[in-house]
Amino acid sequence: NAGVTQTPKFQVLKTGQSMTLQCAQDMNHEYMSWYRQDPGMGLRLIHYSVGAGITDQGEVPNGYNVSRSTTEDFPLRLLSAAPSQTSVYFCASSYREGSQPQHFGDGTRLSIL
Amino acid sequence: GENVEQHPSTLSVQEGDSAVIKCTYSDSASNYFPWYKQELGKRPQLIIDIRSNVGEKKDQRIAVTLNKTAKHFSLHITETQPEDSAVYFCAVTTNTGNQFYFGTGTSLTVIP
């Protein structure tokens, strides 16, 4: 059991570039989510999914897209990178929605120049 | 949306002493309150959680208390050890359980 796997671990982008952060889990969890972590601001929810084919916006969704074509994968797309999107991104999953412990990936450290 | 406030932002204690971190929330319908520990450069990891139908939960040196009337919950760490040094985050879910709101974190330092 690998748990929640995120790739890449580090990435540097130029302003305006696009990229996809990958997240995969092998625990057959229905609920998956993406957070960004900025100094002094804790973790903020970007998007989440309660099952394959279902996604919804979190607290800070602007500039990001997600899709959930399978139970295992939940990629996060940056459409046109901006310096304000420099952050550490965490993917998390739980058995289902509704107050369940979340399992986090190791994170992706993203810098936008 | 939910508003979660966490205090203090930094906390230093002597080894063996107790540490207490408090969070307040705004939505009275919130029903799940986990605490996460994050070591430097690592992922957040769940250390304890409590649901709205329970007032207190203990796991060895760690305990969480919940006051639903006052809308606050606290993490208590007793007999602190240097390996307890980390950033601790509280979180709250909405009543649907779909969205988690995190506090801004408490950096705990245990001085040997």
Task: Report on the architecture of this protein.
The complex is a heterodimer of chains A (113) and B (112). Helices cover 0% and strands 50% of the residues of chain A. With 113 residues, chain A is mainly beta. In chain A, the strands form two sheets. In chain A, strands 2, 4, 5, 6, 9, 10 and 11 form a seven-stranded mixed β-sheet that branches. In chain A, strands 1-3-8-7 form a four-stranded antiparallel β-sheet, with no helix packed on it. In chain A, strand 4 and strand 5 form a beta hairpin. Chain A starts with a strand and ends with a strand. The model of chain A has no long low-confidence stretch (mean pLDDT 94). Chain B has 112 residues and is mostly beta strands. In chain B, 0% of the residues lie in helices and 54% in strands. Chain B is built from no helices and eleven strands. Chain B has strands spanning 5-7, 10-14, 19-24, 32-38, 45-51, 56-59, 62-67, 72-77, 86-93, 100-102, 106-111. The mean pLDDT of chain B is 94. Chains A and B meet through strand 4, strand 5 and strand 10 of A and strand 5, strand 9 and strand 10 of B.
List its traits.
heterodimer, A: 113 residues, mainly beta, 7-stranded mixed sheet, 4-stranded antiparallel sheet, 11 strands, 0% helix, globular, B: 112 residues, 6-stranded mixed sheet, 5-stranded antiparallel sheet, 54% strand
Helix content of chain A: under 10%
The number of helices of chain B is 0
Low-confidence stretches of chain A: none
Mean pLDDT of chain A: 94
- The dominant shape of chain A is globular
Counted beta strands of chain B = 11
Structural class of chain A: mainly beta
**Portion of residues within helices of chain B:** under 10%
- Ranges of chain B with pLDDT <50 over ≥5 residues? none
> Main beta sheet of chain A: strand number and arrangement?
7 strands, mixed
Write the element-wise H/E pattern of chain A from the N-terminal end onward. Answer: EEEEEEEEEEE
Distance between the termini of chain B: 41 Å
Strand composition percent of chain B: over 45%
Shape of chain B from CA axes?
globular
Query: What is the strand content of chain A?
Result: over 45%
Q: What would you call the structural class of chain B?
A: mainly beta
The ordered string of helix (H) and strand (E) elements of chain B is EEEEEEEEEEE
